[in-house]
Amino acid sequence: MASLPKRIIKETERLVSDPVPGITAQPHEDNLRYFQVTIEGPQQSPYESGVFELELFLPDDYPMEAPKVRFLTKIYHPNIDRLGRICLDVLKTNWSPALQIRTVLLSIQALLASPNPNDPLANDVAEDWIKNEEAAIEKAREWTRLYAKPK
Amino acid sequence: MSRVPRSFRLLEELEKGEKGMGPESCSYGLADSDDITMTNWNGTILGPPHSNHENRIYSVAIECGEEYPDQPPQIKFVSKINLPCVDQITGEVKKNQFHTLREWKRSYTMETLLLDLRKEMALPTNKKLPQPTEGSNF
Amino acid sequence: MGNVPTKLEDDRPVRSGRSVSVSATTSGGNGGAVATRTHRASSLVGNLLTSRSRSNSGFYSANPYKRKSTKEKEKLKEKHARQLVVKYNETVDGGFLAPYGCCSIEKLDYDAKVVRSLIIDRKLAPFYTPLQDFDDSWSVNEVVKIVDGLPLHASFTPELEEFEGVPIGDLSNPDFDYLIDKTLSRREQRRMRSKIFNARLYQKRIIWQENENERFLEQKLEAKNHTGASNQYLPNDSLKYDMYKQGAECPICFLYFPEPMNVSRCCLQPICTECFIQIRRAEPHFPHDENDSDSQDENKDPNLLISEPANCPYCATPNFGVTYEPLKERRTGIQGPSPASYVHQEPVKNDESSVTGKRRGSLAAGHPQVITSDAVRPEWQVKLTKERMRLARRSANATAIHVSNQLVVPNHDSQSPRGLSISPRDVTISDSPNTWTSTNAGDIENQMIEQAIKLSLADQKEQKKRRHSAK
């Protein structure tokens, strides 16, 4: 196997030695570019009672190319679609090689705290969100109870 | 060299299929757009010209197991077709009789598979095989 | 390594002449040894494979919009790949003219000629060999030993998944047509050709670099055995130590490089040259077209295609650029004294501008000291226009097909021997109707393409004007 770039080694070490509160990221033993991630739902959000599982992959061109991230836990959120794909600018057009795994995961956590139904990925969810925010938030809470791991 | 994990590989393929970036002679997409495991897929192959398959559209069902893409997917014709590598009862493409499945490489995709099946239909030995009525299914 | 085809062993003979004159600009100024040093420097320069003339050669002088044949494109790509080889005798201030890492050629598609001359002009830091780590507690001997053990280039993965099962044939034979399956359709043959070409080029790149690595090792060994008479291209211990004892981590690749590094023009953050040349504009795209999968690109106005300059990775300021302030006392190699005769000097203290980390304000992208991402990929404009033309051609094709469908009324009986007839209602062209066949539809297509190109060029001009007036 080709050697892992120093950057990935150092980031992984720092994720372990200086973990981000509410976030874990663990590389798979057989693929050190592939991480198993958990993110705790942020306080005062409809996701607060749950822990969400995600997967993250650092492509060959990382950090020139953004990491690939996906939710594995079903989640009701206007910027996350049914396959767990995330609509987040820093994962796409606003990616910068100076960002890191850590910053990406923090951005995702922030996205859970402040959904943006005006730039949706899941159109049906966004519509619900705009039409009746209260009901949508209730549904997000319910899905968190149903699918996420309890904190 | 990094190995793209199954799910991100399937997402790439999905996006390519959705955007219609692939060739026009085949198409594929998720069978259930809610399936977070992305296991079952539907595909279509446009029969190659100058053959008995010309202008026919064949539907196939593809199952990408947990070991995909290290292991080939399972693929089954839904539309009836007469080809040596296709089981005439179940419609399943027989791994040992179809080189793309038999000599599967990690870099192969569902698109490779569909295009190679189309080539199989166009082989001199296969293109004039009598075909079942159009529109019948296994 | 044993089975390296001999044809690949050596580069073409050095073109002498023109490039040597460059040494005349070599600055001396430090006393008696200057004359011999200058002499050595000129031979360094003489060994430069590429000439330093920046314009009027290569493909920039030719019409960049002219379609190149597959063979021409392959030749250019191979020439580019050759310039990515790190050579121990192409050294500038202890660094090199080509990158250390194994990035794919596609990612390293910067203009090698531009970057090489920027490095020689000390306007961009050279490509240094990075250290994986650095420890302040290392002694002089330890540092020197570690630097001595550094390879010229990172080792390549011999087999890539991408090229699995792709035949490469005999690399010393430039012809590989025989590897292409002639039973495939023409489009598939083209695809296969490009795959084989890329797989072959990858292997060639490995061989070229390994040859240089070997040469480098031999020279190092020889220099070690003949203590005293050192190789003029190899740095002495003093230079090795001075370079690496003062280094810093690049915030993007996390590797450790000699200082000074390039510094972003806007927020004064360091960046190594290898990372810098990988930062580029996004491919031409339509504004906000993400997830807009329902509307096909073909249906949009090609003139709306855009490509924004790269942003600074640190502060997101548009139009990323860097400056580089070389250390005068470390000037060695091309256009400088031999790195073997380097003498340690204390940095000139009162000359603030040459001290690393000095504070300057942020500079505009157009400042003469600033090297922008666009400057190392000057082809971006051609690329954008070509992409616009491609789309214009596509929609012109679609329109032409549409038009010809209207022109050609299906002929049920054989009124006309060609099987074609025209409904006069649709045609108001003065041509004799008898000659109006599908080839004329081709003319319309050409006119449309021409029109599209004109529009896109006019738009280019317009944009340029706007940019100028904005400055």
UniProtKB/TrEMBL annotation, chain A:
EC category name: transferase
CDD domains reported in the protein's UniProt record: UBCc_UBE2N (cd23813)
Domain (UBC core) ranges: 3-149
Keywords, sorted A to Z: ATP-binding, Nucleotide-binding, Transferase, Ubl conjugation pathway
Pfam families: UQ_con
EC number of this enzyme: 2.3.2.23
Active site, UniProt feature: C87
InterPro entries: UBC (IPR000608), UBQ-conjugating_AS (IPR023313), UBQ-conjugating_enzyme/RWD (IPR016135)
Single annotated GO MF: ATP binding
Family in the record: Belongs to the ubiquitin-conjugating enzyme family.
Protein's name in the database: E2 ubiquitin-conjugating enzyme
Organism: Lachancea fermentati
From TrEMBL, chain B:
Swiss-Prot/TrEMBL GO biological process terms: DNA damage tolerance
UniProt-listed PROSITE patterns: UBC_2
Pfam families: UQ_con (PF00179)
CDD domains: UEV_UBE2V
Xref: InterPro entries: UBC, UBQ-conjugating_enzyme/RWD
Keywords from the named record: Ubl conjugation pathway
Coiled-coil blocks: none
Residues annotated as domain UBC core: 5-138
Keyword Hydrolase found: no
Protein name: LAFE_0C05270g1_1
Organism: Lachancea fermentati
UniProtKB/TrEMBL annotation, chain C:
Composition bias type Polar residues, residue spans: 429-440
Entry superkingdom: Eukaryota
InterPro entries, alphabetized: ISPD_synthase_CS (IPR018294), Sip5/DA2 (IPR039301)
Region (Disordered): 1-40, 331-366, 410-440
GO MF annotation list: catalytic activity
Alphabetical list of CDD domains matching this protein: SIP5-like
GO cellular component: cytoplasm
Compositionally biased tracts (Low complexity): 16-27
Gene Ontology BP annotations: isoprenoid biosynthetic process
Family the entry assigns: Belongs to the SIP5 family.
Name the record gives this protein: LAFE_0D01222g1_1
Organism in which the protein naturally occurs: Lachancea fermentati (Zygosaccharomyces fermentati)
